[in-house]
Every structure is written in C-alpha cells, then in structure tokens.
Amino acid sequence: MGWGARATALCLASGLLGGCAGGEHFFTPSAGGGGSTFGNLLAFNTTDPGPVPKAGAKEPPLQCPTIEVLDGTSSLRSYGGADQTNGDVKYQYSMGDLARECSKAGNEVLIKVGVEGRVLLGPVGKAGSFTVPVRIAIRRDSDEKAVAGKLYDVPVTIPFGQTEGRFSVVSEPLAVPYIQAHADADYTILVGFDEKGNAPAAAKPPRGKRRKAGAG
C-alpha cells in the first residue's frame, strides 16, 4: 500500500493521516554553517527578511519544524511483473539524509527541505535514467491538514555496468502562516515516496552506450 492510500491528504484538499515514522533519518545542518555538503545546499540566498524589529525588541529565534517520513513511504519498489516477487523487482528506492532550513518573511515561515536517497537495481531492472517520485508537504498539527506541499519528479541515473544510483532534491521555499517562533509546535514536515503520483518511466540507456542487436 503506497503513499496514496496512507496520505491522500498530501493533496492539499484533504487531511493527513496522523501516523508517521520517527526521525530515523533526521538530519539538521549545524547552525554555525558546518554540517554536510548536502545540508549546506539549503542556505537561503535571496529571502526577504521581513520588517526590521523595533529598537529594543528582540524577536525570539525561529524553531524549524521537525521532519518525519510517513509510515510505509521510506522505501519503494518498482516491479517488472504482476507477481511482485523479489525476482520481479526492477528498482528499489530508499530515503537517505533529510534536512530543512526555515526563515521568517513578514507573516510567513519559509521552509526549504532537502531529501537524499539511492536507487538499487533489481533482478529485472536495467541501467539508465528515470525519475523518482518524492513528495514533500507541511502539515498543520492543530487540525492535521496539509497547508503546503509539492510532488517532485527527481531525476536519477544508474550508470551502465553499475547497480545503484543516487539522487537529491532541494525544495523551493514552502510558505506557511507564521503563528509563533516555535514553529515546531505548529507544523511538521512530511516526506516520502509517492508511487501514485508518478510511476517511474521506462529507463533510458545512458548516452554513449548502445546495446548490440540481439543482446540479452
């Protein structure tokens, strides 16, 4: 059972299911600018900082919502047959590092989310290029409604002669209403593979690698 059955509410018109996996892959870039190279991709470069606080009025630091992977969406398999056995697996996707960064702009919180993962080649899979369906959404915890979100078709390539490929995506800033500095008490970031949102297309052989006629 995939994302569509467990979290149809990630389409913004409906509500989210409450059950989420804990932050097993939770990753936060360090405040001092260190952390992994992937975490550093999240730096905001042109975000409107909003109105300047009045002299003497110190605004409390913004607490970014935590990231959770929705139950059943941390991995995904693509099959080459109707039996869906281990021998019929084309590709298996899995989540890796997750990161987020928040910024206040006027009366909104801008949340930028990064997801890394990898794809393994199955027994009937072929090296090539295709897309991985990754959904990122922001849930308002008071009523468990999705208030922002987007499905990303993330490109990934398994090079010829290899058995795995890696992918990464950094979302555009997702805007939600600012309620208080402790945004982690108001919102939760949800990520996961959405098998209903975009079925993987047939793999395209890498450029420069032509198959010989009759090759198996």
How would you portray this structure in words?
A hairpin with a 4-residue loop joins strand 6 and strand 7. Helices cover 4% and strands 40% of the residues. The chain has helices at residues 3-6, 37-40, and strands spanning 20-21, 67-70, 75-79, 89-105, 108-121, 128-140, 145-158, 164-170, 174-177, 187-193. The strands form 2 sheets. The protein has a 5-stranded mixed β-sheet, with no helix packed on it. It is elongated, with a radius of gyration of 20 Å. With 216 residues, it is mostly beta strands. The model is unreliable at 1-35, 44-49 and 198-216 (pLDDT under 50).
Roughly what fraction of the amino acids lie in strands?
Answer: 35-45%
The best one-word shape is elongated
Report mean pLDDT, rounded to a whole number: 76
Give the total of beta strands.
Answer: 10
- What is the share of helical residues? under 10%
Cα distance spanning the termini: 33 Å
Number of helical segments with 4 or more residues: 2
What pattern of helices and strands is seen along the backbone?
Answer: HEHEEEEEEEEE
Strand order of the largest sheet: 1-2-10-6-7
Radius of gyration: 20 Å
| Derived structural class | mainly beta
Largest sheet: 5 strands, mixed
Ranges with pLDDT <50 over ≥5 residues? 1-35, 44-49, 198-216
List the main descriptive attributes of the protein structure presented here.
single chain, 216 residues, mainly beta, five-stranded mixed beta sheet, five-stranded antiparallel beta sheet, 2 helices, disordered C terminus
